[in-house]
UniProtKB/TrEMBL annotation:
Entry-linked Gene3D superfamilies: Immunoglobulins (2.60.40.10)
UniProt-listed InterPro entries: Ig-like_dom (IPR007110), Ig-like_dom_sf (IPR036179), Ig-like_fold (IPR013783), Ig_C1-set (IPR003597), MHC/Immunoglobulin (IPR050160)
Protein's UniProt keywords contain Transmembrane: yes
Naturally occurring in which organism (per UniProt): Cyprinus carpio carpio
Keywords attached to this entry: Membrane, Transmembrane, Transmembrane helix
Domain Ig-like: 1-81
TM annotation in the entry: 102-123
Name the record gives this protein: Ig-like domain-containing protein
Lineage: Eukaryota, Metazoa, Chordata, Craniata, Vertebrata
Length: 129
């Protein structure tokens, strides 16, 4: 299976994570959430299991929790195709899509400043004639 851990774009709450596993067979799979290496049992977790229609399956586990400073949140996936459980740690740094948005915004700002400066120079030259 391919496993991802992300914060959804449209979050149910400010502290919501989704751990997803894709393209696995057989269907038996276990997804658990870890806080500092220990299985979390008290926070709200919902699970969606879906068939891909091509004999493979996907699963999405949603975690709602109250973050605490310095804690490490991880998703653990256990499947028969793995020799040992796969553990993905949550990295709260800026995601690639957020970097893309920042880059596009900064490029637009620079282009706007250049266009405004060129327009101002043209206006001053025209009014001087």
């Amino acid at each position: 299976p391919r496993v991802t851990l992300m914060m959804p774009v449209k979050q149910v709450s400010s502290s919501s994570l989704v751990c997803s596993a894709y393209d696995f067979y057989p269907k038996q799979i276990k997804v658990s959430w870890l806080r500092d290496g220990k299985v979390m049992t008290t926070d709200a977790v919902s699970i969606e299991e879906l068939a891909n229609g091509d004999w493979y399956y996907q699963i999405h586990s949603h975690l709602e929790y109250t973050p605490k400073s310095g804690e490490k949140i991880s998703c653990m996936v256990e499947h028969g195709s793995f020799n040992k459980p796969m553990i993905i740690d949550w990295d709260p740094s800026i995601s690639e899509s957020d970097w893309d948005k920042i880059s596009i915004g900064a490029s637009g700002l620079v282009l706007g400043i250049i266009t405004a400066a060129a327009g101002l120079m043209y206006y001053k030259k025209k009014s001087a004639d």
